[in-house]
Design a protein that fits this description.
With about 425 residues, this protein is mainly alpha-helical. Helix content is about 70%, strand content about 0%. The chain has 16 helices and two strands.
């Protein structure tokens, strides 16, 4: 075994092409990890600054208020989803889904979906992170390392002699390919391990991520091994393998995405925002009862305090904000469930595409997948419900304003 390894190591040292591809893998891995760490640190710095400024801004706004309605209107609350300790490896949906909002007591769906149209196009650009490298680039490097091991010897008419000398094809080609695959795996993973140590990623996640990378390389090794057994020239084998990579990495995911999107239509976030704004704006011109009746249906505990006697009262104002949420609730739920269904079906289809499967696995480990970002939206809604639960008992019975009670305002917890 040692002699075989020594022989293949000497052979690899003489192969300048293989050395180039292996060095490139190391450089790309280091770049991907470095970019990822820089991005998550920038996000954490941004959040740390925003948390401080949010608290100061809210305290300043509340210090000038004289009633509960004004306090609820002018006090903003920062909600956010901090990057996980493995997000540097897979930014995932954080590139296209909002991960921070400043909200207040107004209708919540509009505040959530205001960012929908601002961030949607950025995801088309994509990001070079480790997940993309492991899923899409590493298989190409592996193909370039392995595709001509047999074919080049056939072209040079040394194949049969080498096999006869080695005793069997397996004892010749398996160690040579295994050394290259192992070297590629190590060079890809070393920067990831260093990045994980810097970010404090748990050992369990690091081991899972390493297993995903090694497993993906083994799958592509099997693919290359099967194709390279064909008696063809190196150029024909390379073309075939690149075509197979294109099919599995690009064509299958693209067709699947088109089919899934068509089967699960998702309302546009702007649609939800527009409907809610129309509902809220129309309430100014409607009789007060048109707002208070649907509000009381959801909050019967405030029925005794639902009579509006003046032209403007804060409780009426916040009531029609909630009615705006109630109006768009079916559309918002359809939007949420359709995205979850799309993600579920994409997970099933990814079994046909190793690249998609690897990227999704990394995003799940990093908590940057669609499910995680939808869960963040749900936490924003839950926090907004806590704000309403805090303000309504003060606003509807018209409790005398006491700024000291505002110390009990709910505080957003990113951990949920």
């Amino acid at each position: 075994m040692l002699r075989t390894f020594t022989r293949e190591w000497r052979f690899l040292r003489k192969d300048r092409g293989a050395q180039f591809w292996l060095a490139l893998a190391l450089v790309l891995s280091a770049i991907a990890v470095s970019f990822g760490i820089a991005e998550v640190r920038e996000q954490r710095t941004t959040l740390a600054t925003l948390v401080q400024e949010d608290a100061a801004d809210r305290a300043n706004a509340l210090s000038t208020q004289a009633d509960w309605g004004g306090a609820a209107y002018y006090a903003y609350h920062l909600t956010y989803e901090p990057p996980s300790d493995f997000a540097f490896a897979a930014m995932g949906q954080r590139d296209i889904a909002p991960w921070k909002h400043r909200i207040k007591m107004l209708a919540i769906e509009g505040q959530i979906h205001e960012a929908d149209t601002r961030n949607a196009d950025f995801g088309l650009v994509g990001r070079f992170d480790f997940a993309f490298l492991a899923a899409s680039v590493a298989p190409l490097i592996l193909i370039l390392l392995l595709y001509d091991l047999r074919a080049s010897e056939r072209t040079a008419r040394r194949h049969d002699l080498l096999v006869a000398t080695a005793g069997s094809p397996r004892s010749l080609w398996l160690p040579r390919a295994a050394l290259r695959v192992s070297a590629l795996a190590v060079l890809l993973l070393v920067p990831l391990w260093i990045g994980a140590a810097i970010e404090g990623t748990s050992l369990s996640i690091v081991l899972q991520a390493s297993g995903i990378v090694i497993g993906a390389l083994l799958v592509w090794w099997l693919v290359v091994e099967l194709v390279s057994r064909i008696d063809a020239s190196p150029s024909v084998l390379l073309t075939s393998l690149i075509g197979l990579w294109l099919a599995l990495a690009i064509v299958v995911p693209a067709i699947a995405k088109t089919a899934i999107d068509a089967a699960n239509p998702v309302p546009d976030g702007g649609e939800i925002l527009l409907l809610q704004r129309e509902t809220v704006n129309d309430a100014w011109d409607l009789p007060k009862e048109a707002t208070m009746e649907p509000f009381v249906e959801h909050h019967p505990e405030w029925q005794e305090h639902s009579t509006i006697e003046q032209g403007f009262e804060w409780k009426w104002y916040y009531a029609f904000q909630q009615v705006g949420d109630q109006t768009v609730a079916p559309l918002a739920e359809q939007y949420r469930m359709a995205r979850l269904e799309r993600d579920r079906e994409a997970g099933l289809v990814s079994l046909l595409s190793p690249t998609s499967l690897v990227e999704r696995a990394f995003e799940k480990l990093a908590r940057t997948d669609a499910t995680a970002m939808i869960a963040y939206e749900d936490r924003v809604r839950d926090f907004h419900a806590q704000l309403r639960a805090f303000h309504y008992p003060l606003m509807f019975p018209e409790v005398e304003y006491d700024p000291a009670l505002l110390e009990g305002l709910p505080q957003y917890d990113p951990a949920g």
